[in-house]
Design a protein that fits this description.
Number of helices: 19
CATH class of the largest domain: Alpha Beta
CATH topology of the largest domain: Endonuclease, Chain A
Structural class: alpha/beta
Shape: globular
Number of strands: 19
């Protein structure tokens, strides 16, 4: 190769590199948070060709226009149908709660409704057993939606209940995330069993570019819910899979997942069902018959049922029997705003006594960090429950990068003991408001995942959640600032690097 040709090629490469950098400065910051924009610019400037390919592949946090237009259509329908059912604010609602409910309705289109009961289930096997028992009462339809679905020893009775329902003439519909469920070792047996028993099932956000199904590959549907006849619903953190996620790696490490699920009855079940129906329409273009939402008879009572609305406190007073106010808040990349993040920020900013957060993957954005530390500066009791160890190395290191600032601000951090992964996701403030659902307190859940969150106002429900939180304390230990200051520099270095890459959204 001649010197002139080599010089020309070098000049062209330099011009291309310069063009990429200039274009990045114009395109990347547009409609993007400063932290995310800086992370992408750093990647593009340090590794321009690799960085730009990654940006083109996963740099758009929103779904296609077709999918977003569907969400607008869905929201319009939900607003029309939900307005007649919405609870009217009463004198017992604080002003901040009234405005938070209105914010949620504007963002997610679902109103606040009454919940007859909301029962917390923290035992992994029991929650699946309770779902299975309710499936056996189904007379018209069952709706099942999970991020991960697997046919294994833990879930075989649930699958058997679906088979029995189909045999009775009950319509059973199931949605599962394509990428997450295909990663499971038993995925082929799972899909074959769903076909065999006659379940109507579809993938959520299928990544099948050769079949015309393509969105950004790491945008996922992370929701978990079950609805039976519009009478009873479940939602929370738990997937439909064994406690070790059918993973040889997890078995070798002895890892087991600790979850929290809520069983609901009452009008709020309609909202959980509406989320399923919305996702079904988004994936199949099939609008399900709205008439079948209305319950025909009350949910059956079982000996194990202890409705949160009926739980009594020390005084056993009338307040213990007050109905629950519940609001389902869907969120995800099809929405224009980060519905779940705005909900969390509103609650933390409104708290007057305490804020208690449980999140397995705690990688908040700047606004959330400021809200949490500001709550502590206002003199509130602020606590965070996380796992002592992590199942995802980069996320675990990114999470740890926030511990120092939180501890210095006075936030108490509790570590749930190995070999358990505390996978429950909930937030409680003061003594009467809480959120439980599928959403982590991390950037991925705020931006990239479809999530479902349930806002509940009711002292009895929060009292039950306080018992769950105390169980976390009893099982684990508190991380102190003195202990954190002894962390080796090598580990905190990886924490910082992971925190930087976590902003690539």
């Amino acid at each position: 190769m001649s010197t002139e040709l080599a010089a020309l090629i070098g000049l062209l490469l330099w011009l291309v590199d310069l063009g990429i950098r200039i274009a990045a400065l114009i395109i990347v910051p547009r409609d993007r948070k400063p932290t995310a924009a800086m992370a992408w610019l750093l990647a593009i400037f340090l590794i321009p060709f690799v960085g730009i390919v990654l940006f083109l592949l996963i740099g758009n946090v929103k779904l296609s226009k077709r999918r977003r237009d569907k969400q607008v259509q869905i929201n319009h329908a939900l607003e029309q149908r939900g307005s007649a059912l919405a609870l009217e604010p009463d004198a017992s609602w604080p002003a901040w709660f009234r405005t938070t409910v209105e914010q949620n309705r504007r963002l997610g289109a679902l109103p606040a409704l009454e919940g007859e009961s909301a029962e917390l289930l923290g035992d992994y096997a029991e929650s699946i057993a309770r779902m299975t028992a309710d499936l056996d009462t189904a007379e018209r339809y069952v709706h099942v939606e999970f991020y991960i679905v697997a046919f294994d020893e833990t879930t075989k009775e649930f699958f058997a209940a679906m088979e029995r329902a189909v045999a009775r003439g009950v319509t059973v519909r199931l949605l599962l995330d394509h990428v997450a469920s295909r990663r499971v070792s038993v995925h082929e047996a799972t899909f074959a069993e769903l076909d065999r028993i006659g379940v109507q099932w579809h993938f959520l956000l299928p990544f099948q570019p050769f079949k015309g199904n393509y969105e950004r590959p790491d945008l996922r549907n992370h929701r978990k819910l079950v609805v039976v006849d519009g009478r009873v619903a479940y939602t929370g953190s738990q997937n439909l899979i064994s406690r070790d996620y059918d993973s040889p790696k997890n078995v070798k490490r002895g890892l087991m997942w600790q979850e929290l699920v809520v069983r609901l009855t009452g009008p709020v079940v309609r909202s959980v069902d509406a989320v399923f129906r919305s996702d079904w329409y988004a994936e199949t273009d099939e609008l399900l018959d709205e008439a079948s939402v209305a319950p025909e008879r009350p949910a059956p009572a079982t000996s194990a049922t202890a409705p949160a609305a009926a739980t009594t406190g020390d005084d056993g007073g009338a307040a213990a029997s007050a109905p629950l106010v519940c609001q389902v808040v869907p969120s995800g990349p099809a929405y224009a705003d980060e519905n779940n993040l705005r909900l969390f920020l509103s609650l933390v900013a409104s708290a007057q006594e305490r804020v208690i957060i449980t999140s397995p993957y705690f990688v908040p954005d700047e606004a959330m960090v400021y809200a949490i530390t500001s709550a502590k500066l206002r003199g509130l009791d602020v606590q965070l429950f996380v796992s002592e160890l992590g199942d995802q190395g980069s996320v675990w290191h990114a999470q740890r990068s926030y511990y120092g600032a939180l501890l210095r601000a006075g936030v108490r951090i509790w570590l749930y003991p190995a070999p358990y992964i505390l996978h429950a996701k909930h937030l409680s403030i003061d003594d009467d408001v809480a959120v439980i659902g599928s959403s982590n307190m991390d950037i991925r859940s705020f931006n990239l995942n479809f999530e479902i969150s349930l806002l509940v106002r009711g002292a009895s429900f929060v009292a039950d959640m306080r018992e769950v939180e105390q169980g976390y304390r009893d099982a684990g230990r508190e991380l102190t600032l003195e202990e954190w200051n002894r962390e080796p520099l090598s580990r905190t270095f990886f924490d910082g690097v992971a925190r930087l890459t976590s902003a690539l959204q």
